[in-house]
Design goal:
- By secondary structure, this protein is α+β, with helices and mostly antiparallel strands.
- The chain is about 35% helix and about 20% strand.
- It has a 4-stranded antiparallel beta sheet with strand order 3-2-4-5, covered by helices on one side.
- Helix 2 packs across helix 4.
């Protein structure tokens, strides 16, 4: 994977994270105040995620202190019960891809350029801005 990202510096902080819906037992509308709280919920629910490669789709909304939001989907897998920084990692990877900073190893540069080139500028710019100016870590947590 070709990665061109520097370590995220603390930026605009998270105000809340809302679980909009999930195929797991996460209550619709459940709201937490940090990534680590969201991790605990996701790790707990991952214990009951499908085995053999299946997953529970979970849609979430991150609200930042400046009023901006990020909405995404997390595919909750059984092995996630042992991982940390689940939403942040998902956000960094998604925005890294759509901003043109992360090309997956299975894609040629030409294929990647074609996908990124088809995206609207506002999507690429939004993702780059999120990576550069928003706090995608809990305080004191700087995991890759």
């Amino acid at each position: 994977m070709n990665i061109i990202i520097t370590k995220n510096k603390p930026g605009i902080k998270v105000k809340s994270i809302v679980f909009l819906w999930s195929e797991s037992a996460i209550d619709e509308g459940l709201t937490v105040g940090s990534y680590s709280e969201a991790d605990k919920i996701l790790q707990e629910q991952a214990r009951w995620a499908p085995e053999n490669g299946g997953y529970d789709k979970t849609k979430f909304l991150v609200k930042f202190e400046n009023g901006n939001t990020y909405e995404g989907r997390f595919d909750l897998k059984r092995h996630d019960r042992n991982l940390n920084n689940l939403l942040q990692r998902r956000m960094r990877r998604t925005c890294g891809f759509y901003s043109g900073r992360i090309r997956p190893a299975h894609m040629t540069q030409a294929d990647y350029d074609a996908v990124i080139g088809d995206l609207a500028d506002d999507i690429r710019n939004y993702c780059a801005d999120l990576l550069d100016h928003y706090d995608l870590e809990d305080s004191h947590t700087y995991a890759n």
